[in-house]
Amino acid sequence: MRVPMRRHALAAICSVLLMPVLSLITGCARSEGTEAARNQPQQTEGADLTPGEFLMGGIFLWGLWGALAAALDDPYLAEPPAEGIRVIEGVRVINADGSATENATITISGDTIQSVIAGGEADPKAVRVIDGSGKTAIAGLIDAHVHFIFPDLGTYFKFPTLFFIGTYKDKYYPANRRKYLQNGVTTVRSMGDPLNLIKGLKEKTDNYELGGPRIYYAGKMITAPDGHPSGLYSPGEVDEAVAGVGTVQEGEAVVDHMHTQGAQIIKIIYGSTTLFGGTAPQLNKQVMEAIIKRAHSYSPPMMVAAHVETLQGATEVIQAGVDAIEHVPGNAEALAQLAGDHRIFVTPTLSGPHRLIPTEAFETLKETVRAIHADGRATIVTGTDLPFAPADTGIFDEMELLQDCGLAPLDVLRAATVNAARVLGQGETLGEIATGRMADIVLLECDPLEDIACLREENKIVIQRGRVVFE
Ligand SMILES: [Zn+2]
Predict the structure, then answer these.
(1) If you measure from the C-alpha of residue 250 to the centroid of ligand 1, how many angstroms do you get, rounded to a whole number?
(2) How many angstroms separate the alpha carbon of residue 294 from the centre of ligand 1?
(3) Can you give the pTM of this predicted structure?
């Protein structure tokens, strides 16, 4: 476990500060613990500690503090950039069209797939050869709807975050980043997170400083003034995560700002329900239309994804030209027809709401997904809505729920790979194991085309940007 130097420095300072306390405790224990001590009341606390005991105590506390800091704040650093040639031999590769290449040799150079050849032989210059016999290779999974940096409950409930819990202070959630890679999720689409934090996390991930899935982000969620999800954020944080806009000019200005801040997607909230069943102001229809128009005016156009809650809301955003809808209202046929006519992306996020709403209502959402899939023209994409779905199982829950909605395992796999890559505008670089693509590969010991639940298996090898990040 790698702990940054500043933690050790902090541990050292704290140990020095804690030494008098230690000597006090030791001194008390001695004076009360033995006959001899009780017979010698003139000895005061800690006065008889030798320099050696002092030092040992300090080292002990330092170690204790270091372990505590490490346990609480494993920063989950990145593997170094991949260098040289790596090969996976004798592996079964599932292609995007559902066909399989048996006994394939995948050659990876740096972070890119150089070739995928049936049969084939390992490049003699390879720095590593992975035996893929008995294994199935799929492209790295994509979770296309996450909120990767959660609202700070510390500030939300008006108490200061404990200074030593760096995990919360940095808000980069190392445990979740690690869990995502372990599960085979090599890319995420952040659909609304505090702008500067998500931007910083993306930079650190891209630069091989921190480990975790590759990030594409929307930045601030655009909504009405005081609209959902403003209520989820503390006063100090809300303006970083949410942009409340009341006019066309304000809407366009936020789109421009997100563009300059490196956002790849624009996220609008087009609904009036809060998480807890209350109501909040909804984005004005003309403002919504202007936002979509502005985002599409860029070259290349920025995609716009809309959080929707009702058939009417979905209809309005789809007719205004939105590229993707997030969540699905429970109104099967009409929405399926509309989404199909406009060939949009749909991210149902079933694993999130699954945990929040009554079974009957949930079944109506599944009916909608069933109808959209049966229509076949819209593109279904996997998204968990983390943190509403748990990091450790969310992606698997989502994929199994899509399977429940009538998607064949291959369709589910496509939703999490090729389809999700396209909603990120990365249809040519991610989502497939093919020459020239990014080397994001998951090796499994089972066949996900038989049952998607196979993805839950623990014995994975996960490769991201050509580096083995989990095995
Ligand atoms: Zn969401």
Answers:
(1) 22
(2) 22
(3) 0.84
